[in-house]
Design goal:
This is Grasp-with-spasm system ATP-grasp peptide maturase. InterPro entries: GRASP_w_spasm (IPR026455). It comes from Chryseobacterium edaphi. By secondary structure, the protein is of the alpha+beta class. The chain has helices at residues 11-22, 77-95, 111-120, 134-142, 245-257, 287-293, 297-304; strands at residues 2-6, 27-31, 36-40, 43-49, 52-55, 61-64, 98-100, 128-133, 149-152, 159-161, 166-168, 172-174, 185-193, 197-206, 209-215, 238-241, 262-270, 275-281. It folds into 3 domains: 2-100, no CATH class; 127-193, no CATH class; 197-304, D-amino Acid Aminotransferase, Chain A, domain 1, CATH 3.30.470.20. It has 7 helices and 18 strands. Strands 16-15-14-17-18 form a 5-stranded antiparallel beta sheet, with helices on both faces. Helix 1 (11-22) packs across helix 7.
């Protein structure tokens, strides 16, 4: 049986399940989180509801797509620590199965650490700064020989849902005229040198295999700094792309160092004809890449499971 942890509205999970049904593979999908871990009759069980348990031995493969495996709501630190040991043990047991994704914290990758590791394997990265005041930001924007800079989120979460609306944090260029909008002091902010690109690349990584798509976002002023500012009237041209062998091998080393077996990676192919590593989303949206390039990635995931 295939066990899937996801979220209720995740469309990609639905597509993979369609393929599991095609292969007549038994599966169970749990949304948001597991209820708890249980140990009885000398066996390990996953508690799904108050009266429903799943024998870990009956699970053949596990896909950690989205969600939080366990939510530890105990007030007592002693009991919370005890529960965490039990839950970590279950996560360990699930990772011993044929698995995709990592419940042990690798799903929350620190962008700054990922950039550092990428550079250690000789991948080019944009010059990166953490800035917390207007003076230092102005020094970068004004006094650096015409170089340009962008601000982006440090977290992998860019979409925020509110009661009556939603919002997204985009990558934005900081210009001299923008400086007056900043307070004298602010929270540490990720600032990077703007890499002038020929096009962007989105790569989906799965068990050491890669599938990539070139996104010609530079040809549109609306999308040139962030292709997620979609121009629905005149969409960016997207096409299949193959990363060079040496870049793929370095990416494998980065993913291994980060203990990731899947994820979506963003690159820039710059006007200096070099590849620049930007970031990794360890959950990784891949449906658009799959549909646009006819990669059928949902089938690839189902076959692995």
């Amino acid at each position: 049986m295939v066990l899937i942890l996801s979220l209720k509205n995740d469309f990609t999970t639905n597509l993979v399940i369609d393929w599991l049904c095609f292969y007549a593979k038994k599966h169970i999908r749990i949304n948001d989180s597991f209820t708890d871990v249980a140990f009885k009759s000398q066996k390990n069980y996953l508690k799904i509801t108050n009266d429903s348990f799943l024998d870990i031995d009956h699970i053949s493969s596990f896909w950690f797509r989205k969600g939080t495996p366990f939510i530890n709501t105990e007030d007592s630190e002693i009991i919370k620590d005890e529960n965490k040991i039990n839950q970590d043990y279950l996560s360990f047991l699930l990772q011993q199965k044929k698995s995709i994704g990592n419940t042990g914290g690798a799903s929350k990758i620190n962008k700054l650490i990922a950039l550092n590791i990428a550079a250690s394997f000789d991948l080019r990265i944009p010059k990166t700064f953490l800035v917390d005041n207007k003076n230092d930001l102005a020094d970068l924007v004004i006094n650096n020989s015409g170089k340009r800079y962008i601000i982006k989120a440090k977290t992998n979460i860019s979409m925020y849902q509110f009661d009556d609306s939603s919002g997204m944090i985009f990558t934005n260029e900081v210009k001299k005229d923008d400086l007056e909008k900043f307070p004298e002091k602010f929270g540490f902010t990720l600032v990077q040198e703007l890499i002038v690109k020929k096009f962007e690349i989105r790569t989906f990584f799965l068990k050491n295999k890669t599938w990539s798509m070139a996104i010609f976002s530079q040809n549109d002023s609306q999308t040139e700094n962030d292709y997620r500012r979609y121009n629905n009237d005149k969409p960016n041209r997207n096409t299949l792309f193959q990363l060079p062998t040496d870049i793929e091998e370095k990416l494998r080393l980065v993913m291994s160092k980060l203990n990731l077996d899947t994820g979506s990676i963003d690159w820039i192919y710059a006007d200096d004809n070099q590849f620049y590593f930007l970031e990794i989303n360890p959950i990784g949206q891949f449906t658009n890449l799959s549909f646009t390039c006819n990669y059928n990635l949902e089938k690839e995931v189902a076959k692995l499971l």
